[in-house]
Amino acid sequence: MSFSVILNQLAGGMLKSMSIFFLTLIFSLPLGLLVSFGRMSKNVVLRTIVKIYISIMRGTPLMLQLLVVYFGPYYLFGMNIGGNYRFVAIILGFSINYAAYFAEIYRSGIESMPVGQYEAAKVLGYGRVQTFFKIILPQVIKRILPSVTNEVITLVKDTSLSFALAYAEMFTIAKQIAASQTSFVPFVVAAVFYYIFNLAVAMVMERIEKKLSYYQ
């Protein structure tokens, strides 16, 4: 197999990895914010449930969570799962996992805000929702961006765990080619792809961070 063929096949796998990456961010970032609200809730029952959820997501391997999400409907409810559910299970598994991490990042940022911010907003006549979305959240995003960047970069590499559900993303394709050709080249090319993707993500996040550094 020529190098160009290997490159084309891995490029197709990279597109699948990118789809997992972007869809996970689209769902997990807002979900993480909702989870953080539950984590900070004054309702003891809700707060306890959310704490247990976060503890499980952070305390068990993502690969295991993917397997549970994919095979769970069959073993628990006898539902007939088909091949079309595989990609849905991957996005669902990644999203609920990363939402737990983002929730704790959001919580740390929100709780770090001075009480005076809320008091000043109240004096100006802002409601609770207005205060959060117009005053608190923009400052929180600025504070938590470095931590979010670390998680986003980790997500790029974690997309390779999709192989647990036999989804042919880039790492899976690289393994298949390497096994059939008894060559290490596909792994090298895959590593270059991951590095370039991570570098691009890091540059974008750094650019956003600089734009938000309006005090400097």
Record keyword descriptors for this entry:
MetI-like fold; about 220 residues; 8 helices; mainly alpha
Characterization of the model:
- The chain is mainly α and 216 residues long.
- It has one domain (3-212): MetI-like (MetI-like fold, Orthogonal Bundle), CATH 1.10.3720.
- The chain contains eight helices and no strands.
- It is flat, with a radius of gyration of 21 Å.
- It starts with a helix and ends with a helix.
- The model has no long low-confidence stretch (mean pLDDT 87).
End-to-end Cα distance? 53 Å
- Named at the architecture level, the CATH assignment is Orthogonal Bundle
Separate helix tally: 8
Largest sheet: none
What characteristic shape results from the CA principal axes?
Answer: flat
Tell me roughly what share of residues is in helical segments: over 70%
CATH homologous superfamily designation:
MetI-like
Task: Examine the coordinates and then state which fold CATH places here, giving the name of the CATH topology.
Answer: MetI-like fold
Topology of this protein?
Layout: H1 3-39, H2 44-59, H3 62-77, H4 85-111, H5 115-123, H6 128-158, H7 170-181, H8 185-212
